[in-house]
Amino acid sequence: MSPAAYVFLAVILFAIGGMGVLVRRNAIVIFMCIELMLNACNLAFVAFARMHGNLDGQVVAFFVMVVAAAEVVVGLAILMAIYRARRSASVDDANLLKY
Amino acid sequence: MTHVLLAAGSGTNLDPLFSKGLFWILAVLSVGAAITMIFMRQAVHCALMLAIVMLSLAVLYAMQGAPFLAFVQIIVYTGAVLMLFLFVVMLIGVTTSDSLVETIRGQRVWAALGGLGFLILLIVGIGHAAIGTAAPQTAANGSGNLTGIAKLIFTTYVFPFEVTSALLITAALAAMVLTHRELTEPKPTQRDLSRRRVASGQVAPEPPPGVYALHNAVDMPAMLPDGSTTDRSVSAAISQRDMELGRNPQAEVTSDLEAEERLEAERQVEAAARGRDEQ
Predict the structure, then answer these.
(1) A76 lies in some domain
(2) Within 13 Å, how many C-alpha atoms sit on residue B123's CB side?
(3) N or C terminus of chain B: which is more exposed, having fewer CB within 10 Å?
(4) How close A26 gets to chain B, by Cα (Å)?
(5) Which domain holds residue B45?
């Protein structure tokens, strides 16, 4: 398959992830959707690396994976702290700054 | 799978028909799993759907001549990140599912419309861009995918690579700081614990469930020496589940006790009859 097919698959997955972030209100599921978006970006990076015939895209995808791992660790830790304080993982309940 | 990896390791010289078929299977699988993930109400189901997406993406990487990334995807994403997700889902409570009440009116509709618009925008934009066919692998690849990536990481990208280590250490520290809780009262010592136990009046452990002649199910209350049963032997979660399922172990216990009594009476009658025969 040509790289374009992979890029279009990445675009579809990215849009689905974005839709999930907008629709869902459970913070864990929102995180999962963000992971899906990052994965879609990686797929596009790998496809572009293949298109150019070099490995730079693959290295960038590798760095994205590392940063995503760090992001998940911190994000889930924040989530645990919020859950401990408010007994809820819904983003609707984290509105202390609103009033 | 080995066929894919072997073929991918040396570039992208997969059989075109094979690669096309595999691409369509994986594309449908991953997009289907991603859409299902949005609509699943339980967080655990979402995590499992995400696992399907990630595994199919790993195979897609392998098909595109990136075996190293394919394995990193499986080990780091499916192995570590997703397990971390499941861990937090279990800690926060498997039962917490999304409420169906919309706090912002029309949020779902507008989100779906926005997502669709974004998708169309991206597809039109990328459709206009000229994405060429796969270029032949250049000398940058070295003697293989792995050595090529290693060469790039430790020469061109060595500074970002070092910064990554700082990022990972910061993330680990942040996770420890954020999940740390200060003790507001001194930790109870063994002496305190045993004092509390004696003062509570219940020194021995609670009776275990199901120690009853005819049953060993965990929802069966234990029988005390005086013949009565005790509810303290059954965990509250299990009795609540019984109630939800409409089961009543107490009824079974009473019927069993009655049967036991009847048996005992019959045995006594038999013994008396035997005694009469012997005389």
Answers:
(1) yes
(2) 12
(3) C
(4) 6
(5) 1-95
- Residue type at position B152: L
Given a contact cutoff of 8 angstroms between Cβ atoms, the answer to whether A22 and B111 are in contact is yes
SS (H, E, C) A22-62: HHCCEHHHHHHHHHHHHHHHHHHHHHHHHHHCCCHHHHHHH
Containing domain of residue A12, as a range?
3-91
More reliable by pLDDT, A18 or B233 = A18
pLDDT-derived band at B4 (thresholds 50, 70, 90) equals very low
Instruction: Residue window 6-25, chain B: list those with CB within 8 Å of chain A.
Output: 12, 19-20, 23
The ipTM is 0.92
Whether the CB of B57 is below 8 Å from some CB of chain A: the reply is yes
Q: In chain A, which residues have their Cβ closer than 8 Å to the Cβ of B31?
A: 9, 12-13, 16
B98-127 pLDDT, tens digit per residue, is: 666 667 778 888 888 999 999 999 999 888
Interface test with chain A among B55, B178, B182, by most A beta carbons within 10 Å: B178
In a domain, residue B261? The reply is yes
Answer yes or no: is pLDDT of B1 > 60.
Answer: no
